[in-house]
Design goal:
heterodimer; A: 295 residues; alpha+beta; Uridine Diphospho-n-acetylenolpyruvylglucosamine Reductase, domain 3; 2 domains; seven-stranded antiparallel sheet; six-stranded antiparallel sheet; 9 helices; 25% helix; B: 484 residues; Uridine Diphospho-n-acetylenolpyruvylglucosamine Reductase, domain 2; Alpha-Beta Plaits; 5 domains; 18 helices; globular; disordered C terminus
Chain lengths: 295, 484
């Protein structure tokens, strides 16, 4: 019996269940209800063909294992999370990598998902190929859903070539000034005074752009990107004290927790129908709510 | 105005005219017939009325009136779709967005544009000339298709190999929902809080509501571009080169393959410099910063020669590059020099199986007495087999449909999917159960029902179990062979 089938049996057709990955973002969207049964998705790489630039893995696979397998062929996926994260956890939380401009959003990384639905049956969302418009894009809906619509069992992800060179530069400037000198920096972070920029690509190109930042704006190379403050919110036009803006994504990393914006009535009606359709009894990850997340 | 009317309008047309103005409604028989087709050979029902609203409010009014008359509605862009997605069910109200064609706002600093759905794809990029930005999705129909239509089908194009399909480039979308409510899904930058309803909406083929304003991401023009033309004495060598390039860790911005049949049809007219005796021609475009582009071009040339390329040509200037692309983009028009009709397919297969599937497709066409031709997005395994035929030949359509089904089945057998960029529409809904289990389809239906619980927005499309599938099959007007 496959590990996916085992997972389906473990989830079963009734009773509240919550799925645990690495537990690194366990409280995002609210803590799961105390009386939920805890389940774990299968772990391990199922298939990887570097020439297809796709990889199939159990949702419970540690992110480090996935990255390790990909790195052997100089590839990577657009999944990023704290140490200990799992593939399924990163997808369920749905936070894109800081390097989103290069690797794409986490939502675009998920090509296919074998899921267990609230009725305990298996279904497949999406398809195995890098391009696919066969039917509705359920994968987009599952990423960031905190496991409230279905539980991810096994997934196929799109991969990208790893950069030949990557470096961080830092200096005092406006984000606009930095963008004028760099073609597509993979990350631009702004704390109100300083800009940190991540350059990636072929070594010679990275060096040319780094030199331009150094000579025009006085930037210097730093070992790593800045340490991110613990809370996330959406940009409202003003950077909070101690905050850091991801330029181009409107995500603010700040020291203080901010309230989540309320969805409007039209959106709320769609959301209510989605939840009652996918999980009529509210048994999947009860207590967690993607609309309780500020960004 | 082309609309003429001899008789007094029916109650539906009268109500629509009262709400949005008589010059925004076409209720006559000729308009209803005209708007009952798209760019495919698929036919369906006859439109109940045709509306040409010019604002979000007018779109909402059209939907409310259609519903009050018990009618469904069908969003329509330029009608360039190839899967019958804009083909109405009988009596359905066609809501065309072609008059909503304003570019509302361009924010060069934040690389965002707000456009109305009827803006033509290429018009946006033309409008951006001088800003150093462009709109990346580039379907072959980009000089005619609308951005609203691109959103509906999650359109692709050659350059989505590197830059991604339409969904990647749509930041937010204002939608009139099937109940007439207006919502904005997504955010100008980054991800919206909660479920990704924007992501769910894009590619919904008009079954989830109508997009009335769209915020798109604008892509910076690459500082360096290199366009290469490679020719091969066998399709296998060309396909092996595609796999070798990807396996070597390169993602060209485009990787397009044309077989000899297509080259011979296109070259006399495009003068692109394709070799007429080559079994296959591969266009490889690399872009980015100059050193990386040069490094990749060298690597591509080496891999091509190792895999049997007979010649490698690099476009010397923009004019030569344009000619190479003109041949590729005009391919479908040039087919008319061979036979009067064609059926263009769209499936995706694993890119490592290209050679065997192409030879399988050609064998299928031959067995059915059709000419099979191939021009496609090789880099992402997105096949576009063309079946070329003379539709005046008795019985030929039976062969076209039989061959089409075999091509779909072959693509699925090797681990592929039904569509890469055209969508399911009416064309492929009957094949959905070949790819998806009843449980998979039930989950997709939940998404659809969440947006459109009453099934009034473009019914009979995408899912095989549409509520009024039977009605369309019972229509007296549906010609034999129609895919319903």
């Amino acid at each position: 019996m496959s590990r996916l089938e085992d997972f389906r049996e473990e989830v079963g057709p009734s009773g509240p269940v919550c799925v645990r990955g690495g537990g690194t973002r366990w409280l995002v969207g609210g803590p799961p209800d105390g009386d939920s049964r805890q389940v774990r998705a299968p772990s391990g790489i199922v298939a990887f063909d570097p020439a297809e630039m796709t990889i199939e893995a159990g949702a419970g696979t540690p992110l480090t294992e996935l990255s390790g397998a990909l790195a052997e062929h100089r590839q990577e996926a657009a999944l990023d999370g704290p140490p200990g994260s799992t593939v399924g956890g990163v997808l369920a939380v749905g936070r894109s990598s800081l390097r989103r401009i290069r690797v794409g959003s986490v939502g675009a990384a998920l090509l296919q998902a074998n899921c267990v639905g609230a009725d305990g049956s298996l279904f497949t969302a999406g398809g195995p190929t890098v391009k696919n418009v066969s039917g509705y894009d359920l994968c987009r809906l599952l990423v960031g859903s905190l496991g409230t619509l279905a539980l991810l069992g096994q997934v196929i992800l799109r991969t990208w070539p790893s950069p030949e060179r990557m470096l961080w530069m830092q200096g005092s400037a406006t984000p606009e000034a930095v963008r004028l000198l760099c073609y597509r920096p993979s990350s631009v972070l702004w704390d109100g005074r300083q800009v940190s920029v991540c350059l990636e690509g072929y070594a010679q190109d990275v060096e040319v752009e780094a030199a331009a930042l150094a000579s025009n704006l006085g930037f210097v190379e730093v070992a790593t990107g800045p340490v991110l403050p613990p809370h996330r919110s959406r940009w409202t036009g003003r950077l909070p004290e101690g905050g850091l803006l991801e330029v181009g994504t409107s995500v603010v990393h700040g020291p203080v927790e901010e309230p989540a914006p309320e969805p409007g009535p039209g959106v709320a009606a769609i959301v209510a129908r989605l939840r009652s359709g996918f999980d009529p009894e509210g048994r999947l990850n009860p207590g967690r709510d993607p609309y309780r997340v500020a960004a | 105005m082309w609309r003429t009317r001899q008789r007094s309008p029916d109650p539906l047309t009268r109500d629509l005219e009262a709400a949005i103005g008589a010059d925004h409604v076409a209720g006559g028989a000729s308009a209803r017939l005209l708007y009952s087709r798209d760019a495919s050979i698929i036919s369906g029902g006859r439109a109940g009325a045709v509306c040409l609203p010019d604002s979000t409010e007018q779109v909402a009014a059209c939907i409310r009136i259609a519903r009050a008359h018990g009618r469904s509605f069908v969003p329509r862009g330029a009608g360039t779709g190839l899967a019958g997605g804009a083909v109405p069910s009988d009596g359905s109200v066609v809501i065309s967005t072609t008059r909503m064609n304003r570019i509302l706002e361009v924010d060069v600093d934040r690389r965002i544009a707000w456009v109305e759905p009827g803006v033509i794809n290429l018009e946006l990029t033309r409008h951006l000339a001088g800003t150093g930005l462009h709109f990346a999705p580039d379907p072959s129909s980009q000089s005619a298709c609308t951005i609203g239509g691109n959103v509906g089908t999650n359109a692709g194009g050659p350059h989505c190999l590197l830059y991604g399909v339409t969904s990647v480039h749509v930041a937010a979308v204002e939608v009139v929902l099937p109940d007439g409510d207006v919502v904005v899904l997504g955010e100008e930058e980054g991800d919206a809080v909660g479920y990704d309803l924007r992501g769910a909406f894009v590619g919904g083929e008009g079954t989830l509501g109508i997009a009335t304003r769209i915020a798109v991401h604008l892509t910076p023009d690459p500082p360096a571009v290199r366009t290469m033309l490679l020719d091969f004495m066998s399709i296998e060598e060309a396909a092996d080169t595609v796999s070798a390039v990807i396996a070597a860790g390169m993602v060209p911005s485009a990787l397009e393959l044309m077989d000899q049949q297509v080259v011979q049809a296109v070259e006399p007219f495009a003068n692109a410099g394709y070799s007429l005796d080559a079994a296959a021609v591969l266009i490889v475009e690399l872009d980015g910063l100059s050193a990386g582009v040069a490094q990749e071009a060298e690597a591509v040339e080496l891999l091509a020669l190792q895999n049997g390329a007979r010649s490698v040509r690099v476009a010397a200037d923009e004019e030569e590059r344009a000619r190479i692309w003109k041949g590729r983009k005009a391919a479908f028009g040039a087919i008319a020099t061979i036979k009067p009709a064609y059926y263009l397919h769209d499936t995706v297969i694993p890119r490592t199986r290209l050679a065997e599937v192409i030879s399988g497709v050609n064998a299928i066409a031959e067995r059915h007495g059709l000419i099979g031709m191939n021009v496609f997005h090789a880099g992402d395994g997105n096949l576009h087999p063309l079946l070329v035929f003379d539709d005046r030949e008795p019985g030929i359509m039976d062969h076209v449909y039989a061959a089409s089904e075999e091509i779909v089945r072959l693509s699925l057998e090797v681990g592929g999917v039904l569509s890469g960029e055209h969508g399911i529409g009416l064309e492929k809904r009957r094949f959905m159960p070949l790819l998806f289990s009843p449980e998979d389809l039930a989950a997709q239906r939940l998404l659809r029902d969440a947006f459109d619980p009453d099934g009034v927005s473009n019914p009979d499309k995408v899912l095989p179990d549409g509520p009024s599938c039977g009605e369309i099959q019972d229509l007296p007007e549906v010609p034999e062979g129609t895919w319903v």
